[in-house]
Specification:
The protein is α+β, with helices and mostly antiparallel strands. It has 3 domains: 164 residues, no CATH class; 259 residues, Rossmann fold; 118 residues, no CATH class. The chain contains 14 helices and 31 strands. The radius of gyration is 26 Å and the shape is globular. The termini are far apart. It binds adenosine-5'-diphosphate (ADP) and magnesium ion. The site of adenosine-5'-diphosphate (ADP) has 16 residues, from helix 6. The site of magnesium ion has 3 residues, from helix 6.
């Protein structure tokens, strides 16, 4: 049947580009099946979508490579990366526009479940794209034959067959991913919210390059004795590192001593990392949420009273709405929205926080009376969050020792190495009382569930119906509106953004009926994804989705500027 494809392409040579539509279908090659699922309309359009299925009898991956979902995800990431590398090497211009290009949604440093490659008992399935060759709009049949019958099979042989790999590397990807999942699942029973392995490499090459920093000046992570715990990973075996316990943890230390780098590693620790990344065993509970100020964002229907109340002119903050939030209100809303979805850990960095949201010191309390200050600072809420709701916090604070009063643990960074400053901080609390008055009231306050109103979520654009497009990792064009995710720091891959965009459409269509709360919508959506996989979100079975969390799904919806909600009257959900 592969020669049938060849005959077909020979016949199409010299014809108009549209004639390529004829090659859609399945073709049996000697070692795999090639599916041409979608043929592009012209050489400059989005490339054609192809799929290759290699039966396990040919691919020959050992059973351990797909014995558990964790292991299969690790191996799929390896295969997708290799496929991407080989495709780039193969990449030959074979005409105009994207002619001759082979591309795949290759993962970055994070190992996420992806739709590009699947490894199972049956075999390996790989989805990718090619630019079908043309000069202008004229089909180049010979080039197409070279591309589909030579280049593609070469990449397939080099990336999807076990024989092409060092067996130890395949095992490493499977082992690391499985260990990381195992460790995350076992943090709670150890009383931990995060673990940072000894020897981990936390710094990155640059703000736009997530690969590990290299060189003599890189300091591997080393845990302080008092915070060291040992875990016993199923594959790696015993491993020591710093355990961050439940409660309120401060990361302090001089500027440039590595505080933010540690926090950023914890933020990303909700995801697994590829072998060699340096953060393979920097693991955070999966529902940890980075909280930051995000002035200018829209907020709708959020009860932010726990943090902001008594605005001038009596504006209510129990059902708060604004098109242009301030630093402190946005930070308050980000916390309340995280609690609405459900979280056990907040991660906060002073670098990206509103100062007036974080602290209000004794002197300011003396000058500005509580009833003239709408903001209840986080310092007065952080313990209630933990004690009443079981939500821990890790905060980077280099500038305010007032936080010593509320901390369970103080980690001090010095020249990129932590020491346990908890006792020293306690002693300072005894010697230098701040004189602050706690302003947090009796209780934390309510998280009021919200019901998204489907009419306010309109993906249509003019006469065209659904028009949703991802423009880079941090932008979703949703109908006529832009969703700005640039302050949503735990979106780490454009493929997550793609999946979130598709999920918004899917959820709008299937779950949003004006009676379900956001939380219920999320529960339904994720139960269905769990059962049917990410392919549920797009009937075309595309190869560019990566798994995402409820928190980032909610973050996208919450940033849709047209969104309207109704608060559920029901008592608070827990
Ligand atoms: P802080 O938040 O304490 O001011 P950062 O975390 O921003 O400090 O780190 C300052 C610089 O040091 C960054 O450029 C970062 O890449 C680098 N850095 C952080 N940790 C390490 C480390 N372990 N080894 C080498 N360089 C590091
Ligand atoms: Mg910093």
């Amino acid at each position: 049947q592969a020669n049938e494809l060849e005959r077909l392409l020979r016949r199409l040579d010299g014809r108009g580009y549209k004639a390529y539509k004829d090659i859609a279908g399945a073709y049996q090659f000697d070692t795999f099946t090639l599916f041409i699922d979608h043929v592009q309309g012209d050489p400059f359009a989005a490339p054609s979508r192809l799929r290759v299925v290699v039966p396990q009898a040919v691919a020959h991956f050992p059973a351990h490579a797909y014995a558990t979902p964790s292991r299969a995800v690790g191996v799929a990431n390896l295969l997708a990366r290799r496929f991407g590398e080989l495709a780039r090497e193969q990449d030959r211009r074979r005409g105009s526009g994207k002619s001759g290009l082979i591309s795949i949604d290759a993962p970055g440093q994070e190992m996420l479940p992806i739709t590009a490659v699947k490894v199972t008992t049956e075999g390996v399935e790989c989805r990718f794209a090619v630019g079908l060759p043309a000069r202008g709009r004229t089909i180049l049949g010979r080039e197409a034959i070279a591309l589909l019958l030579h280049d593609v099979p070469a990449v397939v042989r080099g990336a999807l067959f076990f024989a092409a790999y060092d067996p130890a590397e395949v095992k490493r990807y499977a082992d690391v991913n499985e260990d990381a999942d195992w460790l995350r699942a076992h943090l709670p029973e150890m009383g931990l919210v995060a673990f940072v392995a000894d020897g981990a490499i936390l710094p990155r090459r640059s703000g736009v390059d997530e690969r590990p920093l290299t060189g003599k000046r890189v300091v591997p992570f080393q845990s302080p004795d008092s915070l060291r715990v040992q875990v016993n990973l199923p594959n790696h075996g015993p491993l020591t590192g710093m355990g961050i316990r439940r409660g309120v943890t401060l990361i302090v230390g001089g500027g440039y001593h590595g505080k933010s780098t540690l926090l950023r590693a914890l933020e990303r620790g909700v995801y697994n990392h590829i072998p060699g990344d340096g953060r393979e065993f920097v693991i955070t509970v999966g529902d940890a949420v980075k909280i930051r100020a995000e002035d200018g964002r829209r907020i709708t229907g959020v009860n932010i009273r726990p943090f902001i109340d008594n605005l001038p002119f009596g504006q209510s903050t129990a059902n708060f709405e604004t098109d242009n939030a301030s630093g402190s209100t946005s930070q308050a809303a980000n916390i309340m929205e995280a609690l609405e979805v459900g979280t056990s850990l907040l991660l906060i960095d002073e670098d990206t926080s509103a100062t007036n949201f974080m602290i209000r010191d004794h002197r300011m309390q003396a000058l500005i009376a509580k009833d003239a200050e709408p903001i209840t600072p986080f310092i007065d809420k952080v313990r209630q969050l933990y004690e009443e709701r079981g939500v821990s916090t890790v905060i980077v604070v280099g500038g305010s020792g007032d936080y010593f009063d509320v901390a369970d643990c103080v980690i001090a960074m010095h020249a990129y190495t932590p020491w346990d400053a908890t006792e020293a901080a306690r002693e300072i609390v005894r010697r230098f009382p701040t004189g602050r008055v706690a302003e947090g009231g009796e209780h934390f306050g309510d998280v009021i569930p919200r019901i998204p109103l489907p009419k306010s979520i309109d993906p249509s654009k003019g006469r065209a119906d659904a028009k949703v497009k991802v423009r880079g990792m941090h932008h979703i064009q949703f109908g006529r509106h832009d969703i700005d995710l640039s302050a949503v720091e735990q979106v780490v891959d454009t493929s997550q953004t793609e999946a979130i965009a598709a999920a918004l459409l899917y959820a709008r269509e299937h779950y949003m009926d004006g009676t379900r709360t956001l939380r219920e919508i999320i529960e339904a959506l994720f139960a269905d994804i769990e059962r049917e996989g990410l392919d549920l979100l797009d009937r075309r079975r595309v190869g560019w989705f990566a798994a995402f969390r409820p928190h980032e799904f909610a973050a996208a919806l919450n940033r849709l500027r047209t969104l309207r909600v109704r608060q559920a009257d029901a008592a608070e959900e827990r």
